[in-house]
Design brief:
CATH architecture of the largest domain: 4-Layer Sandwich
Oligomer: single chain
Number of domains: 2
Number of strands: 15
Order of helices and strands: EHEHEEEEHEEEEEEEHEHHEHH
Radius of gyration: 23 Å
CATH topology of the largest domain: Purple Acid Phosphatase, chain A, domain 2
Helix content: 25-40%
CATH class of the largest domain: Alpha Beta
Number of helices: 8
C-alpha cells in the first residue's frame, strides 16, 4: 500500500508588490505552481491514497482564483480515482458559525473525503481506516473528539491519524489559534501505523516516534524560511513502514550581506550568475544612521535587475547618541530592534524581547 502525504499548501497566499507574466501576484503564482507540481507527481506515482493535513487555503475566505484553482487541481485526482483524505487547518477553519467551511466545496467529489465540520471523521476502506481530526476552535471539544477516535480504533485494519497541530514545543509556529497536542496523549501515536501531521512548515519526523511525520509546506510563507526541502512524503505500508521525502523545485531565495562602508567594491565582487528570477535579500551592515540616509535603495536594486524581487534590510550599528529623526531611511523593524538594543541592558531579557519582536514582525509581513 502506497500513500502520498502533503500539507500546508496555503493556496491564495500572496506578498511582495510585484506581478508575474500572467498578472498574478508573483508569490501567489509560486504557490499555485508548487501545488500543481505535487499533483503532477502524484499522478505519476499513482498511490492508493493521498493525504492533505490542513491549510489547503491560506484564508478561511479565499479568493475566487484560489478556489477555482483548487477545484481544478483536485479534480485531476478525483478523475484519476485516487482517494484524497483532507482536513481543515487553522488558516481555513471558520472563526464564526456564520462562515461556511470552505472545504465543503469538495462534497460533490466522489473520491475526496474532507473533515472540516468541527468534528473528527473516520473514513473507512477495505484494509485501512483514516482517522481525521481537523482544526477545532474549541480545545475542550477537540480533546473530546480525540477520545472519540481512540475509542473507535479498528485493530484489524491499518490505521492512519491525520492532524493539524503542534506536537512538542519545537514545532510551534507562534500563530493565532494553533493547537498544541497534549504531551500526556502522545501514547496514542503508537496505536497507528502512521501519523500524518500538518502545521509545521518543514519536513520532519518526530524523534520519539518512528511513525509520526510533518510533511512540511509546499512553499515558503516567509523570507525567514530558508528551507529548500519543500515537497511531499511517499509512505510505503506493505510491511515495515518506509517514509521517503521528495522535494520540488522552488523559486530561489538568495541573501547577500554587504558592508555598507565598502558598498561599491562589495557589489562588484558578488557572484550574480544565479539570480535570474530569484527573490533577493540584500542586507546592509556596518551602517550608522547618517550613512543609511546616503545610500539609495534604487542604487542597490539596479545591480540585481535580473532578480524578480529585491528586498533591502539595513542593520544599524548600536549607538545611544545617534539621532533617529529620519526613520524612513531604515525599516520599521530595524528601527524598533535598535531601540530595544539601547533600552534593555540585561542580555537574556534583551534576547527574548528581540526574538519575540522578530516573530511579530514576521507575522505582519506574511499576513498570518
Amino acid at each position: 500500500m502506497k500513500i502520498v502525504h502533503f500539507s500546508d499548501t496555503h493556496l491564495g497566499f500572496s506578498d511582495l508588490d510585484v506581478l508575474n507574466s500572467n498578472g498574478v501576484n508573483l508569490r501567489e503564482g509560486d504557490f499555485y505552481k508548487a501545488f500543481s507540481d505535487i499533483i503532477d507527481a502524484i499522478l505519476k506515482i499513482k498511490p492508493d491514497f493521498v493525504l492533505h493535513t490542513g491549510d489547503l487555503f491560506h484564508r478561511a475566505s479565499p479568493t475566487n482564483r484560489a478556489i477555482t484553482f483548487a477545484l481544478e487541481q483536485i479534480d485531476r485526482l478525483n478523475r484519476a480515482k485516487i482517494p484524497l483524505i483532507l482536513i481543515a487547518g487553522n488558516h481555513e477553519a471558520p472563526k464564526s458559525k456564520a462562515l461556511a467551511p470552505i472545504l465543503k466545496i469538495f462534497d460533490s467529489f466522489e473520491n475526496v473525503y474532507a473533515a472540516y465540520s468541527q468534528n473528527a471523521e473516520i473514513f473507512e476502506f477495505k484494509d485501512i481506516n483514516f482517522y481525521a481530526l481537523p482544526h477545532i476552535n474549541d480545545e475542550k471539544k477537540l480533546l473530546g473528539e480525540l477520545d472519540k477516535i481512540e475509542n473507535s480504533l479498528d485493530l484489524n485494519k491499518k490505521r492512519i491519524l491525520l492532524m493539524h497541530a503542534t506536537v512538542g514545543a519545537y514545532y510551534l509556529m507562534h500563530e493565532f489559534g494553533e493547537w498544541v497536542f497534549p504531551k500526556e496523549r502522545e501514547y496514542l501515536f503508537e496505536k497507528f501505523d502512521y501519523v500524518a501531521l500538518g502545521h509545521w512548515h518543514g519536513f520532519s519526523g518526530l524523534k520519539k516516534f518512528n511513525n509520526v511525520y510533518y510533511a512540511g509546506s509546499s512553499e515558503r510563507t516567509s523570507s525567514n524560511d530558508t528551507r529548500n526541502d519543500k515537497g511531499y512524503v511517499v509512505i510505503d505500508l506493505d510491511k515495515d513502514l518506509k517514509v521517503r521525502h521528495e522535494t520540488i523545485k522552488l523559486r530561489k531565495f538568495l541573501k547577500f550581506e554587504l558592508d555598507a562602508k565598502n558598498l561599491e567594491s562589495e557589489i562588484k565582487q558578488l557572484d550574480l550568475s544565479k539570480i535570474e528570477g530569484a527573490i533577493v535579500e540584500a542586507v546592509l551592515y556596518n551602517l550608522d544612521i547618517n550613512l543609511s540616509m546616503e545610500i539609495d535603495n534604487s542604487y542597490i536594486k539596479s545591480h540585481f535587475d535580473r532578480a524578480s524581487y529585491v528586498k533591502i534590510k539595513r542593520h544599524l550599528l548600536e549607538s545611544k547618541s545617534e539621532s533617529y529623526e529620519n526613520v524612513e531611511a531604515i525599516t520599521l523593524q530595524d528601527y524598533f530592534l535598535e531601540y530595544i538594543n539601547t533600552q534593555i541592558e540585561d542580555e537574556k531579557q534583551k534576547k527574548r524581547v528581540i526574538e519575540k519582536a522578530r516573530e511579530l514582525f514576521s507575522i505582519v509581513e506574511t499576513g498570518l
